[in-house]
Amino acid sequence: MFTVIIVTLSSSIELYGAVETKSGENTITNVAYDTNPQQDQGEEVETEEGFAEATHSPAPAWTVIPFVLLLLMIASGPLFYEHFWHKNYPKIAVILAALVISYYLFVLHNTHGPVHAAFEYIQFIALLASLYIASGGIVINVNKRSTPLVNVVILLIGAAISNLIGTTGASMLLIRPFIRLNRNRIKAYHIIFFIFMVSNIGGSLTPIGDPPLFLGFLKGVPFFWTLEHNWDAWFFALIVLAVVFYFLDRRNKVKEEDLEEEMVYDNKITINGKRNFIWLAIIIISVFIDPNIIDGVPGITYDGQTFSFIREIIMLSVAYLSYKFAKKDIHELNEFSFEPIREVAFIFVGIFGTMMPALDLVGDFAKSDAGASLITHNTLFWGTGILSGFLDNAPTYLNFLAAAMASQGASLSVVPHVIDFANGGVYYDSVLDLKAISIAAVFFGAMTYIGNGPNFMVKSIAEQVGIKMPSFFGYIIRYSIPFLLPLLFLVWLLFFY
Questions:
Q1: Would strands 139-143 and 268-272 be described as parallel, antiparallel, or unpaired?
Q2: Quick one: pLDDT at residue 41?
Q3: How far is 269 from 238, CA to CA, in rounded Å?
Q4: Alpha-carbon torsion 205, 209, 212, 215, what sign?
Q5: E strands, 265-411, where?
Q6: pLDDT digits over 270-305, tens only?
Q7: Helix (H), strand (E) at residue 436
Q8: Cα 484 vs. chain centroid, distance in angstroms?
């Protein structure tokens, strides 16, 4: 399995010449793998997009040690040395990231990886922080008795909303009312299934839903492609999880001593801080203020790619203004604090900084002819999925899509190629390949706390209000393996096998 994962990931694929398609019958003569050994390190190579930085020396295998060490500390710190970890995790994450980045800059003389990682991190944290802070000024109170059916309805509604305001937006908006609704019977599984359904799988239908799908949209995948092709797997997965959760929740009986006396339910839903929905709307609209979508929007061009900064300025400004003008009593009702977003910000500094060698190493292997020959929708599904559970799923999505397209002579950097790959009819089995990558990147993001940004934030919010959450490995062993993994196997069997 590890070989399959290695084979199907590509961090940067340069093309020329001719390659054979997966069907083995047709040949596309415009592109193929660039294996030119004549390029010297640091030499500039002329391309269609201008001058791009040439390939640098590959990162040696030992450079993945900081990434592995960070994952192990995330997993073991809260369990075995909790006080030390909570006091020092910011320093640990920054130091490990700095070690890898310094090696790239001063030993490999590679600025490409660190600069791209920096831009991607800024985009990531600007969105998460703005949604977290803006939603913190909204209090939704569901004055109903907590029952398994009510909980299932909320989870399904949250999953649907994820496609309109993103998995992060829906998670931040609904996790607190979901906890309050179940305050007399809240257990860890409530939070875990919320992560499964709302923070991940729910956002599979639109590019707004989850960051990997939005990156695909920026590259040229049509906006409604995900709705058209992902709805069946989305619907199946949510129904299965809803049924499993329902029967789990039925076994959760409230003890008499935990009941609140004279509690009156009027079955009403009240919302305070409604003006913060305006801030949320601004954030969602700003997602599309990108130089790759709208001509004329200023951007920063580096190494053939244009990065936005206006969008991030808007998001961070909204974060500041929404907090400044929010009512303090609403923050108190929400038990709002900056600790969850602070934890996410530092942990993911470490992840973005240290995961570069892992992506580069598997990417280098995927450039080989042997690697390309093993790419199928099956290996794309499991390869994209497993790595999305431990690496950020957005760059994983792009790397696997680049590998899948390159195996058939297409380039991710050419928009018409992406459109043809998404629409089918030009490249062999390309629609199923893209569906496998898209579903796996989003669904498998729920496998661990670090698979998707909202996961860690939801966990942190739950812990802030006193809910005992499982450790990193506890999450995987007690919930991902027995509940999520069989579902993912069924999804693969029904829709891809």
A1: antiparallel
A2: 39
A3: 24
A4: positive
A5: 268-272, 299-302, 305-308
A6: 888 898 999 999 998 998 898 878 888 999 988 777
A7: helix 430-443
A8: 17
